[in-house]
């Protein structure tokens, strides 16, 4: 009995031990499965996170330890590469901006010329057509310095932005790129209408366009003056006298123009412009001023202007032969540009509404001019030679300025020597600043050397 009971206990103990071992095994296995499940669920989460929310900081992403070590080193490398690339991009952008800044700094003057302050009652809004050209840009300078608001309208046919760039950004200055053959709608108190090519090679290059500018363009400007009630000054020319039969030329002389000659597009264009001005004055009550401008010279005139002053100075500066077309006995009177501008301003401000000659009455033969210019250029080794005469070239040109003296109290002040010296200095600078071809306008590029005229 006792033996049986001992056997039974032993069996029960063994069973208990086996059950315990099985239990422990199951429990341990269960923990392991749970860990695997958790790990799997975490890595799925991590993937889901990286797809859905790439902006979330990386520390939120839970990854298995070994995998995390590999990813860490990869992402650090990637991050380093990205930062390096970003730095290179930023450096390139900064270099580009620095270059742009340098160009802009070079263009925008540090300081504007001194401008007078005018109250709103005295300040006028003044439109200057052809304001980027030779005469126009000097006129713009004076109007700006007097404190007026200036609007320049130009199509840059012969003009250059460089002539007025020292005003870019000034609150009183505005520039409109526009061809006056098309209507223009702006507000203005006064209009100086100067837009037209002025030198023979320029105006002969496209005669139809020259006529359109002086007729349609003038109609557009007179129409604008009528609409806004502005006073308008028309830049006419001594060419309305053609090859004159009267000497010197008074305003009362009607002229001697060949209507079908090579210069007619300009001469007749200007004559029609004058006719239009007085028609608008009579019919539409527009307040008009007409300046008959004689040959003018000075800084900012075209290097390839093709007329006496620029030709001779350029030839003398480069020790080239100074070419006189014809026998050299034809005469011209040259007015320095600041004198002309003073005359235009005096005319606009006056009550005189008939045409007025503005020019310098000191007359020289072309031959004499060649020698004067040669003597003013130090060390000039040029010789003077004659070439074939130019068709319809006026033989005598000298203004009678009695009306300007009487009604405008104006007469030129700058002597020929002084004016030429300033002009020579300008051309010298132009030559050294840039090569001839870099300095050209749109028009210059089209004009052939064979067109050069006196
Ligand atoms: N310079 C002289 O010796 C002289 C003599 C007599 C008359 N003028 C007259 O004075 C004025 C100015 O002459 P400049 O010597 O300054 O000549 P310029 O060629 O230097 O200037 C004329 C300006 O008018 C612009 N222009 C031409 N056609 C245009 C158009 N359709 N629309 C807009 N702009 C246009 C040109 O781009 C240029 O800026 C002209 O009307 C000219 O006939 C000049």
TrEMBL record:
Listed CDD domains: UGD_SDR_e
NAD(P)-binding domain boundaries: 127-423
Catalytic reactions on record: UDP-alpha-D-glucuronate + H(+) = UDP-alpha-D-xylose + CO2
Entry's EC annotation: 4.1.1.35
Any one of the GO CC terms: Golgi cisterna membrane
UniProt pathway: Nucleotide-sugar biosynthesis; UDP-alpha-D-xylose biosynthesis; UDP-alpha-D-xylose from UDP-alpha-D-glucuronate: step 1/1
Database matches in InterPro entries: NAD(P)-bd_dom (IPR016040), NAD(P)-bd_dom_sf (IPR036291), UXS-like (IPR044516)
Transmembrane segments: 12-28
Entry keyword annotation includes Cell cycle: no
Family assignment from sequence similarity: Belongs to the NAD(P)-dependent epimerase/dehydratase family. UDP-glucuronic acid decarboxylase subfamily.
Protein name, UniProt field: UDP-glucuronic acid decarboxylase 1
Organism: Leptosia nina
